[in-house]
Amino acid sequence: MPDTNLLSLQIDHVGILQGRYEEVLENHGYDSLLISSGAAPVRYGDDQSWQFQGYGPFLHWTGLAGFEHAWLLIRKGHKPLLSMHQPVDFWHASLELAQEPWLAEFELRFSEHRAAPALDSLGQLAVIGDPLLLADVSGEHNPGALCDAIDETRVHKTAYEIACLAHANRLAIAGHHAARDAFLAGASEFEINLTYQRATQQREADAPYHSIIGVNEHAGTLHYQCYDAAAPDKSRSLLIDAGVRYRGYCSDVTRTTAGVGEGRFGALVQGLEQLQFRLCKMVAPGVDYVDIHRRTHQGIAALLSAAGLVSGLSDEEMVSEGVTRAFFPHGIGHFLGVQVHDVAGKPVPSPADAPFLRLVRTLEPGMVVTIEPGLYFIPSLLEPLLSGPLGEHMNRALIKELQGCGGIRIEDNVVVTDSGSRNLTREAEA
Ligand code: GLY
Ligand code: MN
Ligand code: MN
């Protein structure tokens, strides 16, 4: 069982959610809210289901990621009612609820049936969840304005959530260290993945996302999803982006390691890490997250110059002409919580110069974000640059050499505090 401090923070968390939800329901004219945990859809033309991970609002209240066909009812002035699905089933194991103190804050029921619990006197009822599961449920389904307001209740993490995210980081770091050692010992991507799972004691299907494990040029595919079972003749680089789910909460951590003898690539990794440290230090209340993204492009420009990859262009020209975008094509990060790309990051669309940015808000205490700059050698993005009018500024020989190392990403999970920030990933590494 987790320590008593965490368990008592969880009781506070439930109380805080009750207050936040009551206010949202009141503001939107509802008396009660029914939340579906969700269920894995069966694959088309098959009798197998997709892997299940629960619906965000249900996880926010309970942290129970693997429980299908459960329902949670929230009403003003009542304990939340948690109805768990417990079928008689000799094919599958019944998931057990750990007997923990937070359950006393709920009215708990068990049902053999998948249907929502039959309830009276709910007044104006809203129901949220996967529409496929709501067909027979009365009430207003997924009203947009209410759903947006509920998403907003997840933006400022409670002390309990931050403690869970910190622990998810500690677990992930154990996996990252083991993965790095396996890479340096010559392991294949497949073996590195097994090593990570063994160290984190979490199967990949239960992790927040499938691990991204790229050796050599595979490190240049942003969400590389195949694992070579054979190690390459020479292991030049490893990019591993992998997290752990703990009590519903996700870590999302990336590390890049240069192989033995890869001095130039190793220097670039160090340079990007120095930039990443500076970007993490920018995290503070009142800072526009888009500014951190823009500062990343300036830092990438300086790094491209210092590494001799690009010459004869100022940092400003490299940014305005799209050179940095070719090397760093994604956003600097996103919110993190019970979903790896947590909700409510974009109340307005991303700006034109940052189309893939998932978070465009001013930072406030309690928000948790990732900071994940990258520098990649992606043929489809670099070829237009090399064959275009700026081609003469590119160091083709060096780009070609480093293309075999794929790319670099370094990603930490950072909490905005009252006075600055707390880097959960570096804390876990210390
Ligand atoms: N692991 C996916 C991401 O970093 O956003
Ligand atoms: Mn991320
Ligand atoms: Mn990641």
TrEMBL record:
GO biological process, any: proteolysis
Cofactor: Mn(2+)
Record organism: Marinobacter antarcticus
One MF annotation (Gene Ontology) recorded for this entry: phosphoric triester hydrolase activity
Keywords attached to this entry: Dipeptidase, Hydrolase, Manganese, Metal-binding, Metalloprotease, Protease
Annotated catalysed reactions: Xaa-L-Pro dipeptide + H2O = an L-alpha-amino acid + L-proline
Co-factor: note: Binds 2 manganese ions per subunit.
InterPro entries: Creatin/AminoP/Spt16_N, Creatinase/aminopeptidase-like, PepQ_N, Pept_M24, Peptidase_M24B_aminopep-P_CS, X-Pro_dipept-like, X_Pro_dipept
Family to which this protein belongs: Belongs to the peptidase M24B family. Bacterial-type prolidase subfamily.
Binding site for Mn(2+) 2: D241, D252, E411
Annotated binding of Mn(2+) 1, by residue: D252, H334, E372, E411
The protein, known as: Xaa-Pro dipeptidase
Any one annotated GO CC term: cytosol
Pfam families for this protein: PepQ_N, Peptidase_M24
Gene that this sequence comes from: pepQ
Function: Splits dipeptides with a prolyl residue in the C-terminal position.
Chain ranges of the Xaa-Pro dipeptidase N-terminal domain: 12-149
Annotated EC: 3.4.13.9
Span of domain Peptidase M24: 164-418
